Amino acid sequence: MASPGTPQIQLEEDEEGISIGEIIATVMEYRWLITSITLAAVVLGLAYIFVAKPVYRADGLLQIEEKHAGGALKALEPLMGDDTTVAAEMEILTSRMVLGRVVEKLKLDIVVAPKTFPLFGSAIARRHTDAEPAGAFLGLSRYAWGGEQVQVDSLDVPRDYLDEALLLVAGDNGAYTIINDDDQTVLEGSAGTRASKQGFSAFVSQLKARPGTRFNLMKCSMEMTLTDLRKQYVVKERGKKSGVLELSYQGFKPEQIGLVLDEILNAYVRQNVERRSAEAENTLKFLETQLPALKTQVDTAEAAYNNYRQSRGSLDLSLETQGVLKSVVEIEDAALKLKQEREELRQRFTAEHPTVQAVDNKLARLNERRKQFEGEVSKLPDTQQTVLRLARDVEVSTKLYTELLNTAQQLKVSKAGTVGDVRVIDSAIVSRTPVGLKPAAVVVIAVVMGILIGLIVIWIMRAIRVVVEDPEIIEAKLGLPVYATVPHSKAQIALARAPKAGPGHSQLLAVIQPEDDAIESLRSLRTTLHFALLDAQHNSLLITGSSPGLGKSFISKNLGVVLAQTEKRIVIVDADLRRGHIHKEFGLLREIGVSEYVASHASLADIVKPTAVPNLSIITTGRIPPNPSELLMHLRFEALLAELGRLFDTVIIDSPPILAVSDAAIIGRHAGATLIVARAGKHPIRELDQAVKRLNHSGVAVKGFVFNDLDTDRQRYRYGYKGYVYRYSYKQ
Fold first, then answer.
1. Checking phi first, is residue 17 left (phi over 0); if not, alpha (psi -120 to 50) or beta?
2. pLDDT for 284-311, tens place per residue?
């Protein structure tokens, strides 16, 4: 219980999840992998810059005008149909009616291009600046390497060969041969003359290439050509409801894309003018069919009026009758116009629509006025009534005929002066430099993608490789203490790569660099082992591991040196009778060791070999026996360990890995304590758990672990107490 005045300190476990420090540590651990992947991505980016074809862009502007007629042409607006929307014009600009004309005029359905070497051939050909064709690179004469020129003005093929790839092979003096996919010759000819054969016809106006050079040739269908054209062709409105359309077209040939876009603009304007002219012409044809009938009606009315006057003598209308006639004519004219308006409305609305009903109301009022005038006319004498009726027919017929005649004349003028309701604001202009990603942007993207790919690769590697990298995981999962954490030693790596020492010379890190951090951690292990062996029956220490390559021999040798430096008698027994190699670092020979002693071929004095380190002796494996496990189970091996325990203060036994062979379980029964060496990032926790269980099942109690080869540089980037690595070295 803590006293009331004393604050209670509670240590909490780290929260689950990935911390920023862990991410930084992981990135720094794999920094060379990320760098390599990034450099590879940059190289690929530079290769893309070299190989990628530059894309150019041409653009132009169109204006869709809302046309208003003025003066005498204002009455023709309903007839001209000026209700075209911008959306409709955009659809027309991408229609087959417009683009088809462009394809036919510019021969876009004929595709011919030099056949270049895959990947980098086209890049080399683009950079050729000489006027003459380049020579064959590496003897590859069938490919084009720059400077070739070919122009096919006409190409006709059978229907089955539409959209099929052909090859045009250049010959001597402008001759050429066209072959199909089956390497069959379908046509032969020469530049400047038309050649025809079995449904094939071609006119090659220009051919400048090295003999044997091949060109890809294709006659495309209209559908395929328009599909490819629309992929690079964009129409959009600049500004909402501005009526200004922006057209753009992209391609690899700057001299061609400008021509294509200009031709699209011209074809669209031409069809617009033709459409407007056709509308006026159709209306004019209709009026010309109506005018003769109206002319006949006028002549008939005038003849009837004149005949009646002659039969009755010269009759003049009184002032009162003339006023009634004028009013009746106006009513008839107004009624006729309202009826026309109603017919137009009925094409769009029903009879119940308010607009239609309003027109009906106007007609009803006109009919009421007509009835009033008819009552006044009935009061006139019969002669005056007849004259009034005939005069009304003449007036109405003449007025209608005159209006239609004027309309026909105006339509003739309109047709002759039709200019359309669109105009080209900016003709096509081609960009001077390629569009799209710039080389600098490609490099930046490559760097970013390289880093991202590197991080993804690291994440996959970490997800697949579920290994122990933190000694605290061992303590938490297995319930066994980690007596020492030995950091990674660059000096030990250098010693391992150095030539082996001769007899009498040692290559131990504890001897050559005693101030190394790894040796310092073994000194802390020395102190811990002093207390761990106090209650042990034997003063021997077994050091093993779960699998090979964990550094157990490194721990055994250098721990022996560290213990010997405390004026204690230490012996290291190399009990790995299969691959033992401790003798090499001490500059000793393998012969005369454990195998010879157990086989009664040597005495204890013969196998205990002193080393250059004071108080430290070595017992080598001896000759590699065919039955290591049987030798270790022999009573003489048990007696050997007992005798060594009496002669030395501490006996360190280096054994094979427990999961590989059973030697460690045999030796562990005679040892005072057993330590398992675990190496950072080399095995999963289940492997260590299996090693502990294997020893426990054999009656060997595992004291704890030694965590070897911890990357302290990685730990330095981790936040929290887990990231602290203390160093306290000597300075002179």
1. left
2. 666 667 667 767 777 776 677 677 666 6
Question: Which among 676, 659, 684, 658 is positioned nearest to 469, based on CA atoms?
Answer: 684
* Domain 471-723 CATH assignment equals 3.40.50.300: yes
**Encoded amino acid at 419, one letter:** V
pTM of the model: 0.60
Number of helices (H), then strands (E), belonging to the chain: the values are 25, 20
Q: Which helix (H) or strand (E) holds 573?
A: strand 570-574
Residue 40 φ/ψ, nearest 5 degrees: -65, -40
Angle at 78 between CA 72 and CA 79, to 5 degrees: 80
Residue 720 banded pLDDT, cuts 50, 70, 90: very low
Q: Which two tokens stand for residue 94?
A: 């991408």
Q: Which long-range contacts (CB under 8 A, 24 or more apart) does 363-371 make?
A: 363/335, 363/338, 363/339, 366/331, 366/334, 366/335, 366/338, 367/335, 369/327, 369/331, 370/328, 370/331, 370/335
Query: What is the residue type of 461?
Result: M
Nearest to 300 by CA among 394, 404, 392, 391: 394
Percent of the chain with pLDDT strictly greater than 90: 47
- End-to-end CA separation in angstroms for the chain: 47
What lies within 8 Å, CB to CB, of 156 at 6+ separation is: 199, 200, 201, 202, 219
684: left (phi over 0), alpha (psi -120 to 50) or beta: beta
**CB-based contacts of 354-360 (< 8 A; 24+ apart in sequence):** none
State the Cα–Cα distance between residues 637 and 86, nearest whole angstrom: 101
pLDDT confidence band for 528 (50 / 70 / 90): confident
- The ranges assigned to domains in the chain are 20-54+436-464, 110-219, 295-420, 471-723
Beta-carbon count within 10 A of 699 CB: 9
Instruction: Tell me the one-letter amino acid at 594.
Output: V
664 within 8 A of 676, measured Cβ to Cβ: no
